[in-house]
Design brief:
mainly alpha; 279 residues; single chain; 0% strand
């Protein structure tokens, strides 16, 4: 009886600690979101979407930064997704139990947790320094390097969830292994693969450090990938550190836009994942 009471007491203490930790974490998140909503909506206006970043003391918006972010993110995802998809397919379909697959998985895990500033420095050394100048394409390649491990992990996980009986059915029909993967495994894991791509987009949408070393920034609207290109995270970083009130308002507005975009992508990924689980 005494042991039972001790266990109940320990259980109650554990539950209280769990709830306290959860409330503590959620409270900080709520405070951050409330501050972001209050300051961000105050800086939003039509000019944010129609005018370029201004000099101090002038009216302006974030049009060039928004377009630059969309261009570099789009190219980065387009470059990184096929590589991640193929590598994840190898790990799930061909390399099970092999030493090479274990090595690739280990390296991918390291890349997945590596600080993004390290990726920026790496691309700086292999692209920016030889080219002699910052450029949008360097920023896109840096984002692609960050996209790859995310897509590799999700692709492997999603393909492993596909029942082996589906592959066996395809093989029994005389389909070669490549067609079984393309027409059976990929189709069954389609929602999960798209979810992984959306998560990768959400991951790189707010990256600042790699772009500081590769694309830098541009005060003007410029879609030339061979020139320094503006991006929303870098503009937020620079404007938030400035002493000018109008720049700080634009930084809050940009932070709100990125948060809403990431939230929309995360909700879309969750919905696709839930649909896959229901099937």
């Amino acid at each position: 009886m005494k042991i039972y009471k001790v266990r109940r007491r320990r259980n109650k203490i554990s539950v209280v600690l769990y709830y306290s930790a959860a409330v503590f974490g959620i409270a900080w998140l709520v405070l951050i979101l409330l501050s972001l909503l209050e300051q961000g909506f105050g800086g939003l206006s039509l000019a944010v979407f129609t005018r370029n970043t201004p000099p101090p003391g002038s009216a302006g918006g974030l049009l060039n930064a928004i377009v630059g972010s969309l261009i570099m993110t789009g190219i980065g995802v387009a470059l990184g997704t096929p590589v991640g998809l193929l590598a994840g397919t190898y790990l799930a379909e061909y390399g099970r139990g092999s030493y090479l697959a274990a090595t690739v998985r280990f390296i991918n895990d390291i890349l997945l947790s590596a600080p993004s500033i390290v990726v920026g420095l790496f691309i700086y050394e292999i692209m920016v320094a030889p080219m002699g100048h910052f450029s949008g394409i360097s920023g896109a390649v840096a984002l692609a390097v960050i996209v790859v491990p995310v897509v590799v992990r999700t692709t492997e996980d999603m393909l492993r969830l596909v029942p082996g009986s589906l592959r066996e059915a395809g093989t029994a029909l005389g389909m070669p292994r490549v067609l079984v993967i393309n027409r059976v495994a990929y189709r069954a894991a389609k929602a999960g693969l798209i979810t992984g791509m959306l998560l990768a987009v959400a991951r790189v949408s707010g990256e600042t450090a790699p772009l500081l070393f590769t694309a830098l920034n541009n005060q003007f609207f410029d879609a030339n990938l061979n020139e320094p290109m503006p991006s929303l995270p870098v503009v937020i970083y620079q404007f938030a550190l400035s002493p000018y009130r109008d720049w700080q308002k634009l930084a809050w507005a940009g932070a709100l836009l990125i948060t809403l975009a990431v939230l929309a992508l995360s909700i879309s990924a969750r919905m696709l994942g839930s649909r896959k689980a229901a099937q």
